[in-house]
Structures are given as structure tokens and as C-alpha cells.
Amino acid sequence: MKKSYQNIEHKREDGSIWFNDLKRKREEGPALNKHRYTEFSDATKSVHAGQYDDPNTGALGTPIFQCSTFYLKETSYQAIEEGRGRDEMIYTRYGNPSQWSVQEKLSALENAESSIVFTSGMAAISSTLLAMLDKGSHIVSSRDIYGGTYNFLYEDLDRYGMSVTFTSPTNIKEIESAIQEDTKILYFEALTNPLLKITPIKALVALGKKYNLRVIIDNTFLTPYNVKLLDLGVDLVVNSATKYLNGHSDLIGGTVSGSRKLVDRIWPQMLKNGGSMDPHACFLLERSLKTFALRMKTHNANAMELATYLEAHTKIKKVYYPGLASHEQHSLAKSQLKGKNSGMISFEIEGGDTKAHQLLSFLKLPKEATSLGGVESLISLPYNTSQASLTKEQQKAIGINDGLIRLSVGVEDINDIISDFNQAISKTFKS
Fold it and tell me: Percent of the chain having pLDDT more than 70?
């Protein structure tokens, strides 16, 4: 039996409501440089937000603070005593200037009060979910989520006395019907892997408000450049920083962004899980984010052109791309993504997996490798990579058909990419 949960006002004996009497307000951050350039565009935020220019040396750009610990002082002890350890430099697993710098840049791009960076996307996902759940909690999620996330939800939650129900990411009625009295979280991906289904965020947020649930969204495929989910009412946004945020295929990382209140709940879980990002990795991520907006603009434009080319090719059975009018949710893409449709394309080739493998062998520019979001185009077959942990029946159930190819379109010249696909498809069907 479902019920709508209302906010409960906790009254004291004198009749006043205690939470209205609280004076302390959580600050954004933590940060060394609190100027987020909120009045500027994403391209400007990418370059300037969060950057720490060292006053002692005059170094332009955030140094790498490659240290494990910091001098303790009176403010350190006071922060520890008051439970504000996250706001002081004490120990690098707790916080480091390199972490604070990149976290501020991320918060500026996400329009978030606070962010945390992790050693991997899965560290971000697992820490976030465990921090938001109690024993007996239930999650509603998607059958189409990333294989690693699916495994964590399906295999590990039961060990913590928690449970999950998997639904379609696009069917709000099915999602609502899966909500139970012990449901605490709606966890979905904004754009699914590999079929690029769009989760209707506003409708999901409305469900969250109706049943007093946290809405947590993985935005790896879209990033805050394409859609700012916190502005749409989502509670927490996670990303695999390994992908578009870093964009150079040389870093493993994860992020979470949201209100300071919620992110402060995740921070101690991160400490327990041990997923704090190393200072040098923080430096690499902040460096890469300086070109984030430029890269995303090119990824989006290249993908749209290539998707159009592929859809017109006689040897391509179907193309999955939100920017195409043929996409089943094209109208939602226009309203929710507003023309920023990601750099990801999936398509089915005539001849099934056999021809798909041949095509990959003939391509010169896209590299046959797992992952996505790099400056170079990356291509793979989902059945033996991202969804390899699913059975054939599970793969078919979510639409992973014979001959499905996933392509992360890079920032190479689009004419070169199209020419390469043209020659590779021709060779594939001559052999």
C-alpha cells in the first residue's frame, strides 16, 4: 500500500518548531577559492572556477599538494570537536587542496553547493548509495544501468539487508508501481548505456516529491554541459570522471554533487570505503576540465553529423541517437536536452555480431576499446563489454540485439571520421 509522505514538524514543549530555530547554515564548498564565476558560462567556469593561485610563489594554477598529512592547529582541533573535519586540512583522505580545487570547479559546473571526487565512478556510486540507505531500505532502479552498478545493486545490497527492484527507465507508471513503503531512493541514469534511452527527469523528480524519496542520477553520458540535473530538482548527481569530465583516457575517477547537507552525509562513507582521490589525479582532472566545454561542444556536434550519416547508410539497420527525429523519445530530448544530445551513438549493422567485429577491424580512427568520453573516438560491442555480465536473455530484454555497436565519438575532424566509416563499411561488406 503506497502512501504520500508529508514533512513532519517536530514541536517542542513551548510549541515552537525546532528546525526553524536553527541558526547555523552550511556553507558551500569546502574551498580555498570561493569565487565560482556563477555569472559566466560553462566555458569560463571550466577554465577559472576552483583554481587556486598560490600566493607565496605566484604560481598560476593549482599546485599538486602531494602530501598525506597537514600541521594541526587550534582551528583543526576545534573543527574535529564540532564535527567539521571536512572544512579543515587534517589528512589527505579527509581533504586536500588539490581535491578542494577540482571539487569547486565541479560544483560550479553542476550548480551544486558541494562535490566530492572519488577514486572511481563505482566508488562514487557505492559510497553515495550506502550513505543514503539504512538496513531494510529498498531502491527502485533501471534494468538498463551500467553493468558494474547493476552488479552492486543486485549482488551486494542483499548483504546489507537492502533490496532493489529494476524497472524500465522510461516508464514512469512502472517506476511508481515498484515503489514500496521501505523505498528510499530512485536511482537512474539520465541517458542509458548503450541504447541511449532518456530518463524523464522532471517526472521522476515529481515521483520523488510525492513519496518523499531521494532522486539520484548518474549523468556520465550527458555531463553537466548537456543537462544540469540539480536545476531540475534531482537530489544528487554522480558521474564517472573517467569519461567526459576528464576526457583524455588517462584517469580513473568519480564524482558526486548536490546540497552541502547531503554531500556531507556521503563524505564519512567515502572515508570508510577509502575512495578518496589522490592529489595527482585531482590535478589531472582539474587540468582536463579546463577544456571541458570546448570538448563537449565538439563531441555533440560530431555525433549529430555521424548519426545522420549512419542512419542514411543502407548497411546500417538502426541508429540510436537522441538528436535524430527517429529516436523514440526525440520530443523529450528536445525539451530536456535542448539540442545537446551527447557524443554517444549506438547502431545496429546488417550481418549481426560477425559483421560488427569485421567493421571494427577495418576502422582506422575509432579505437576498439572499452570506456568512453575521450578525445579519441572509442568503439566496442556492448554484448562483450559493458553488458557482458548480463545473460543473453537479459541483454535481449533491454534491447541489445545482434550486431549492436556502441561508439563514443571523439573530437577528430568529422569529415575524417565519416570518411573512415565509409571505407570500413565498404570493406566489411566486400569480405
Answer: 94
